[in-house]
Design brief:
Elements: H1 7-16, H2 20-33, H3 42-49, H4 56-70, H5 99-109, H6 126-138, H7 156-176, H8 182-193, H9 203-227, H10 230-246, H11 250-266, H12 270-284, H13 290-306, H14 310-325, H15 341-354, H16 358-371, H17 377-393, H18 397-407, H19 417-429, H20 437-456
Helix pairs in contact: 2-3, 2-4, 5-10, 6-12, 7-9, 8-9, 9-10, 10-11, 11-12, 11-13, 12-13, 13-14, 13-15, 14-15, 15-16, 15-17, 16-17, 17-18, 17-19, 18-20
């Protein structure tokens, strides 16, 4: 992995005369004083010196520690990281107008590393987002340019190879998260998939080829998302939305809008999350299977629950369950195979948790945990942590911590920045019980798990 050394961090560490181990210890001690647990070791510090990315809260803590030693204010920007002291400007969507435009954009995205240090607080202008959604809703499909002269002819065998590769990388993502395989996948996309879109093919093959390319592009977005690079993930998603427009794949395009809603919700942009989910629901009506419609409705419920709209969220959850009841009566695309009853129940448990509906939250989260296939390790970890938070809502501290501990047993899951945030959110929620032995033991478990993760890198 080619990185430039972080000369600003190195310079300030030299100025403070602090070693990698010394800085790691100071950061752990400062975190402990704030009632949280940090797993930073000298290995992580060396990676940051070498130019690796860092999570925003960790960068802020490091800046505070070094600033205290120097006796002056230090910001993450002074250390060569993003600077949260500056307001974040809205990011342009850059929705491509033509097929060549979207292929050029995707080629450029595939040259970017997902591990670049990017803050969580992605901001997208409402007007820009609305323009992109409207373009997708009303645009005519570009269509396939079949049988055009080219040096290479593509067949269904090539399409099957792309789908097989996407399936393999998806399983790696489900198991390990954290952008595992992103570098290899983007290389494959850049050099093996995108060139085929400019080759010669029949109408049938071309349609299947653009569909398969969209699936790989979406997976690149998700792996960037799970790494914590939300800017890159957002650009992949909006480009993939445009790619789906070429072949008028409304069901997959709506799926991308649902993904954008998921990301907006995660980042706290709840009004946008609601808008995006509703666009998915409306844009796919009559063009999507019941299982897909259940997925879109669940995304709307998640966004509404986050703003405390219990009536709206309840309606959307009921719609999701109603659609899902008819799911087995339709033939779904392979990319939707993951969305089973356990996945739906996991989404619903998030809604009940956010609405502070204790009994329903526990019941839904327990069902999701019981029914989730262990091969979806990251999903199972999320569900267990939601169940832990639900127990905490119900005043059951021991059950909450025991359940959260089970979520940590699969150390591989911690590679996901999203999963790490679920863990730190739970630690903050039990912070008032920091002196309780079971909470102390859990914090130690988190520390050890993160240390093992850093040693494995």
């Amino acid at each position: 992995m080619n990185r430039e050394p972080n000369v600003q961090l190195i310079a300030i560490m030299d100025e403070t005369n602090v070693s990698n181990k010394g800085l790691a210890k100071r950061m752990r001690d400062a975190a402990a004083q704030r009632g949280t647990n940090l797993g930073t070791t000298h290995v992580a510090v060396q990676r940051w010196r070498d130019g690796a990315g860092i999570q925003p809260p960790t960068a802020a803590l490091m800046a505070d520690v070094l600033g205290a030693k120097l006796g002056r204010r230090i910001t993450p920007g002074d250390l060569g990281f993003f600077d949260h002291s500056q307001p974040t400007a809205p990011q342009p969507i850059g929705y491509p107008n033509t097929v060549p435009d979207v292929l050029t954009m995707l080629g450029g995205l595939a040259d970017q590393r997902a591990e670049a240090a990017i803050p969580d607080d992605l901001v997208v202008a409402d007007t820009d987002l609305s323009a992109a959604v409207l373009s997708w809703m009303i645009a005519r499909p570009d269509g396939i340019q079949a049988d055009r002269p080219a040096s290479q002819r593509v067949g269904m065998r090539d399409v099957r190879a792309i789908r097989d590769a996407a399936s393999m990388f998806m399983q790696l993502d489900f198991k390990y998260g954290g952008g595992h395989g992103h570098k290899a996948l983007r290389h494959y996309f850049r050099h093996e998939v995108l060139p085929l879109l400019d080759a010669s093919y029949s109408e049938k093959v071309g349609h299947a080829l653009f569909s398969a390319a969209s699936e790989v592009s979406q997976l690149l977005a998700w792996t960037a998302y799970d790494t914590g690079n939300h800017r890159l993930a957002h650009r992949y998603l909006t480009s993939t939305l445009r790619l789906s427009q070429v072949i008028d794949d409304r069901m997959f395009g709506a799926r991308i809008l649902g993904n954008l809603s998921h990301q907006a919700n995660y980042l706290g942009n709840h009004a946008q999350a609601i808008q995006l989910a509703r666009a998915a629901v409306e844009g796919a009506k009559g063009r999507a299977t019941p299982r897909a419609m259940a997925n879109y409705a669940a995304m709307e419920a998640r966004a509404l629950a986050n703003v405390g709209d219990s009536i709206g969220a309840g309606r959307a959850m009921n719609e999701a369950e109603h659609h899902f009841e008819r799911a087995d009566g339709a033939e779904d695309p392979a990319w939707l195979g993951y969305f089973d009853s356990a996945e739906l129940m996991g989404e619903i448990s998030h809604c009940f948790r956010d609405l502070k509906m204790r009994r329903q939250s526990i019941e839904a989260a327990q069902r999701a945990v019981d029914d989730t296939d262990p091969k979806y390790a990251r999903t199972l970890g999320f569900c267990r942590l939601v169940l832990a938070q639900s127990h905490l809502l119900n005043g059951e501290l021991e059950a909450a911590v025991t359940t959260a501990s089970l979520a940590l047993e699969s150390g591989d899951t911690l590679q996901s920045s999203r999963f790490q945030r679920y863990v730190t959110d739970f630690q903050a929620e039990v912070g008032t019980h920091a002196a309780n032995p079971i909470v102390s033991a859990f914090n130690e478990q988190v520390h050890d798990a993160l240390a093992r993760l850093e040693d494995d890198e």
